[in-house]
Task: structure prediction
Amino acid sequence: MPIKMGTGLKCNPYPQNLKKGRTSGLFLWADLPNQRNTNEENQYAPLNPRLTFLLSFCKTWPMCYNVRMIKTVEQLEREYQLKLLFGEQKVEGELTYNHANGFAHPLLWVLPQEQPGHMTPMMWGLIPEYEQGEGYKEYYKKTIQYGSGLNAQSEKLFSSGMYKNSGLNRRCIIPVDGFYEPHTAPNNYKVPFYFRAKEEAMLNLAGIYTVTKDKYVTFSILTRAATPLFAKIHNKKKRRPVILDKKDIDTWLSDGLDKMDVGRMIDNDLPDDHFSAYPISRDLYSPKVDSNREDIIDVVDDPKLEIDYR
Result:
């Protein structure tokens, strides 16, 4: 049986500064209310400082590893008509980020299939359900070269042992204001682009989540082959996130979909004409600069950029 969401959710966040978006954490779900984990000494430290240089380098990795999420809880509740789902320990403050780097494994608000009408904070970076979540630091360390579970290829959704159960039973929506993708100009010169909805609405990223053997919950953003706009901008890997229309959220989170239904929704997600994309400061990639700031999404026309993005 799937774990009942909200019956024993326990948040154990790292030491955090929520306002500046420098937070990470994991969530522990118990099967039943009377089986909750009550070990208050079970606290989690940040990832090994030795990985700091890798996290900085990973700012430039060419997938959907960087997002912007600035809506408050109140705004999200109003936008999606949702209620918050917490367990024994609530997240304090707002989970807002002008730039959330996935390799820092931040907490983001997620709409889970198993609890319709709710949103709950989850950690970005899928850990397989057959792993022990308690070993998350080692897992992320050993899988960093593969993206640490930040993205999941939709083409493998039902063939990979890591994804297939989630594809039917644990789909989710990750609401964001926008996201960042790299363009590779001549001489391997990287120019970051910011993607947002033309109508400045929320973007609904399709994802999956897992619950490990010891009840830790993490999520991943689904990706697919790039459509023309994404192929032009994200021209190295030529991938794009799966982004759904708001009217399709309830269907995506419903229990009645089979593999073909899920595949059709992925193949028919939002078309390119829904998005606006433009170049921004290369500070997004700099380990020496705080890129989690409001003006990071300002347009910066780079002279080395050779494509027409307007």
About this structure: The domain at 9-297 is CATH 3.90.1680.10 (hypothetical protein yedk fold). The two ends are 50 Å apart (CA to CA). The chain has one domain: 9-297. The chain has seven helices and 16 strands.
